[in-house]
């Protein structure tokens, strides 16, 4: 009986050990839950395609101040780099030579006027005598010719005097416009107005509005021209002028420090022809510059809309991998499994890439943990919400 109890205890102990062994084994072999993987949905929308062009800044008016007569520079009457008003005296040139010419012309005018008076008096005396045949017709004709020649000489002398006075006025160099004046290219005491001496003394620029000139290739120009045609059609359709102005003023200016200029500009000039040697065409845009931050001579990049892609597909740049010029990304399919897709990309739009081939609207693309996933892997997608700049805002589990 004692042996039977020992056997039963051994049997029960072995049974318990076997049960615990298989229970632990089954517990260890239970598959882990699928990992949560952040994903974003493919965005589909109309996307304006921008391109940047290097341009140079000019004033609305850049007027060179010239020495129109020769002479010694006597005075400078402005602050370099300051503002000047239209008609303000900028430079004075020694007037002595030109004052002498004016005096000479005045003397010549007085002389011709005296001769004219004599000719007129002679004519007044001869006319009555000619009427009674006291003098010959030849004498009358000579008197008439002398009087007409005297009048012509007086007019010529007056013209010469006006020209001399104009030359004298050029010794006072005045600003032709309101604007900002630059550094003078001549100092007091220099001889100016004749090469190799300074002829252009300075430049005055109006910079309340600035012009930016840049070049487009033929294909870029065609895209821009089509946009102009579209805007013209909106005008003909009776769209509000303010709305059209807003659409036309769609150029951005990126400055040398990579900051974006506060005011937007619009194209106001396209050159007549494409340069056959470069295949480029000159375009000019104008930008408001009320604070006068921008100055002529600066370089800046003009950011312009050259096309609009309708129903374009976008994904964040960080979702895309590149290897030897080929691009791919990972998609979570309807079975919550990972698929690797080869894709073709287009333009960069902020922090997004435009995808031209390889994905469909609304598909879920792996956003984070690309290194952790593999083809066919089961995952639990966690949809990430991004703002317009591609920055993470929040998430919800799907």
Compact description:
This protein is α+β, with helices and mostly antiparallel strands and 398 residues long. Helix content is 31%, strand content 37%. The strands form two sheets. It has a 16-stranded mixed beta sheet that branches. A four-stranded antiparallel beta sheet has the order 6-5-3-8, with no helix packed on it.
Give a structural overview.
Helix 2 packs antiparallel against helix 3 and helix 4 packs antiparallel against helix 5. The two termini are 66 Å apart. The protein has 5 helices and 20 strands. The protein is an alpha+beta fold and 398 residues long. A hairpin with a 2-residue loop joins strand 14 and strand 15. The strands form 2 sheets. It has a 16-stranded mixed sheet that branches. Strands 6-5-3-8 form a 4-stranded antiparallel sheet, with no helix packed on it. Helices cover 31% and strands 37% of the residues. The radius of gyration is 44 Å and the shape is elongated. The mean pLDDT is 86. The protein folds into 4 domains: 98 residues, conserved putative lor/sdh protein from methanococcus maripaludis s2 fold, CATH 2.40.420; 112 residues, Elongation Factor Tu (Ef-tu), domain 3; 50 residues, OB fold (Dihydrolipoamide Acetyltransferase, E2P) (Beta Barrel); 74 residues, Helix hairpin bin (Helix Hairpins), CATH 1.10.287.470. The longest helix has 36 residues.
